[in-house]
């Protein structure tokens, strides 16, 4: 089940958000060795202060946080515009109220006990959740900056991207900017690939999103 956390309820979700930032530190700093700032075991960047929406995958049986992803409108601060604009062709911008950016997609790295099936399930759950949020919010696309590792994950999950510009090596990794279509057909395709047969967003989160 995916929990939606937005600014109005952040104060009620501090423990869950702390675990998310700790997860991001383990994934992006410890495992992938990205050049990110970690303080007190938590990875937090400037875009966490830009009124994001978080999707958090929580195991319903154990209560354990198993994955997360962040969404930001492209009409405000976002990573593609403010950090990775080199990926865009000259003169190109991605800014629209119906295009949001996803970033900081991560899965708990200490999941050997869960098996490949569960890892794949969490991945497709998050991807399906992104599309479900997009449908509820009236989006046409989600844009994302991602590396070759995530490109392989997207392909394995039948999550197709329209690459913008030319992939560019940033640091040690080949980096892409891609647009992902939001539609019921896309949601159904990803869900089918992951064996998901019901909506993945928590009913409470859906109500909050519809009321926004």
UniProtKB/TrEMBL annotation:
InterPro entries: Acyl_CoA_acyltransferase, Autoind_synth_CS, Autoind_synthase. It catalyses: a fatty acyl-[ACP] + S-adenosyl-L-methionine = an N-acyl-L-homoserine lactone + S-methyl-5'-thioadenosine + holo-[ACP] + H(+). It is an enzyme of class 2 (transferase). GO terms for molecular function: N-acyl homoserine lactone synthase activity. GO terms for biological process: quorum sensing; signal transduction. Its EC number is 2.3.1.184. Keywords: Autoinducer synthesis, Quorum sensing, S-adenosyl-L-methionine, Transferase. PANTHER family: ACYL-HOMOSERINE-LACTONE SYNTHASE, ISOVALERYL-HOMOSERINE LACTONE SYNTHASE. Belongs to the autoinducer synthase family. This is Acyl-homoserine-lactone synthase. The lineage of its organism: Bacteria, Pseudomonadati, Pseudomonadota, Alphaproteobacteria, Hyphomicrobiales.
């Amino acid at each position: 089940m995916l929990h939606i956390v937005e600014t109005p309820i952040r104060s009620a979700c501090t423990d869950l958000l702390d675990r998310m930032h700790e997860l991001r530190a383990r994934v992006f700093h410890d495992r992938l060795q990205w050049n990110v700032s970690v303080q007190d075991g938590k990875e937090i960047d400037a875009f966490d202060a830009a009124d994001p929406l978080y999707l958090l995958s929580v195991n319903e049986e154990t209560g354990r946080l198993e994955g997360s992803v962040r969404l930001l409108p492209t009409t405000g601060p976002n990573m593609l515009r403010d950090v990775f604009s080199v990926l865009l062709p000259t003169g190109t911008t991605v800014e629209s109220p119906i295009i949001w950016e996803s970033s900081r997609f991560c899965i708990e790295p200490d999941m050997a006990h869960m098996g490949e099936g569960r890892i794949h399930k969490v991945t497709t759950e998050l991807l399906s959740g992104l599309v479900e949020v997009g449908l509820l919010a009236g989006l046409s696309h989600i844009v994302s900056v991602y590396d070759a590792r995530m490109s392989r994950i997207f392909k394995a999950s039948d999550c197709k991207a329209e690459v913008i510009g030319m992939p560019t090596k940033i640091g040690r990794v080949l980096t892409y900017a891609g647009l992902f279509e939001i539609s019921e057909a896309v949601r159904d395709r990803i869900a089918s690939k992951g064996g998901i047969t019901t909506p993945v967003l928590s009913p409470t989160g859906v109500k909050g999103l519809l009321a926004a």
